[in-house]
């Protein structure tokens, strides 16, 4: 591979390494999920590991717009490298699901600006951007719920989740389940909302995996935690 373990790798060298890893079968699977790249993620992580942390290179890789390059960019970054405005711009550009998810989970959740971004994105008119706000809200529901209006969140979920676009719906459903799992006083209502709306009730779930249907999800995680 061109980059080896050099800390002075260029964008073109990284792109060449990623192109060499391209697999048409992996791309076909990824494209069914909206992810337009064909690189095995374990091998992609190996590329990033050799590069180590390089914020300037990360920005250059991000600017290419290439999905695999953006995933590497996220892995060679640290949250402190980006301002609130930069992260807001990056999130709005991140239309590919895997890039969106990694950016939120690996960078934004650990950013000093996470709360400001959460509140901004939560009310955004763009459903994909709003889904990031809901994902960050789910994290707060689980880890630091003080100050959140949990019954109000349930009100919004009850009124809007059924008819929301897929990615926003998924994020709202996760928040519903997170409330039910972590807040026993609201568990009955969360279960009731899930049962009534039936969102993701028929979602195909592999063996040994938990269904994303909120009542099943809540019940299973609560059961595990009680063991």
Mean pLDDT: 95
Alpha carbon gap, first and last residue: 47 Å
Task: Assign an overall shape.
Answer: globular
Total strands = 0
The biggest beta sheet is recorded as: none
The parts where pLDDT drops under 50 for at least 5 residues are 1-5
The helix/strand series, from N terminus to C terminus, equals: HHHHHHHHHHHHH
Question: Fraction of residues in helices?
Answer: 55-70%
Structural class: mainly alpha
In short:
The chain has 227 residues and is mainly α. The protein has helices at residues 11-20, 24-31, 41-51, 55-63, 67-75, 84-93, 97-107, 114-122, 127-143, 150-160, 166-182, 184-197, 214-226.
List keywords for this structure.
227 residues; 13 helices
Q: Can you describe what's shown?
A:
- This protein is mainly alpha-helical and 227 residues long.
- Helices cover 66% and strands 0% of the residues.
- The chain is built from 13 helices and no strands.
- Helix 9 runs parallel beside helix 11 and helix 11 packs parallel to helix 13.
- It is globular and about 55 Å long.
Strand and helix map with partners:
Layout: H1 11-20, H2 24-31, H3 41-51, H4 55-63, H5 67-75, H6 84-93, H7 97-107, H8 114-122, H9 127-143, H10 150-160, H11 166-182, H12 184-197, H13 214-226
Helix pairs in contact: 3-5, 4-5, 5-7, 8-9, 9-11, 10-11, 10-12, 11-12, 11-13
């Amino acid at each position: 591979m061109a980059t080896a373990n050099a800390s002075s790798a260029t964008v073109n060298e990284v792109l060449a390494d990623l192109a060499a890893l391209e697999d048409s079968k992996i791309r076909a699977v990824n494209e069914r999920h909206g992810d337009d790249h064909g690189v095995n993620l374990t091998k992609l992580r190996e590329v990033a590991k050799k590069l180590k942390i390089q914020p300037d290179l990360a920005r250059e890789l991000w600017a290419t717009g290439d999905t695999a390059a953006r995933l590497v960019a996220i892995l060679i970054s640290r949250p402190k490298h980006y301002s609130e405005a930069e992260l807001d711009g990056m999130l709005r550009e991140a239309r590919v699901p895997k890039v969106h998810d990694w950016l939120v989970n690996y960078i934004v959740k650990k950013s000093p600006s996470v709360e400001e971004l959460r509140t901004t994105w939560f009310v955004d008119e763009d459903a994909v951007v709003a889904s990031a706000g809901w994902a960050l809200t789910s994290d707060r529901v689980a880890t630091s719920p003080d100050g959140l209006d949990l019954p109000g969140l349930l009100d919004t979920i009850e009124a809007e989740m059924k008819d929301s676009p897929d990615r926003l719906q998924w994020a709202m459903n996760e928040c519903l389940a997170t409330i039910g799992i972590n807040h026993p006083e609201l568990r009955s209502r969360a279960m009731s909302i899930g049962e009534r709306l039936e969102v993701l009730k028929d979602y195909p779930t592999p063996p040994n995996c938990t269904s994303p249907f909120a009542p099943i999800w809540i019940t299973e995680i609560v059961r595990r935690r009680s063991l």
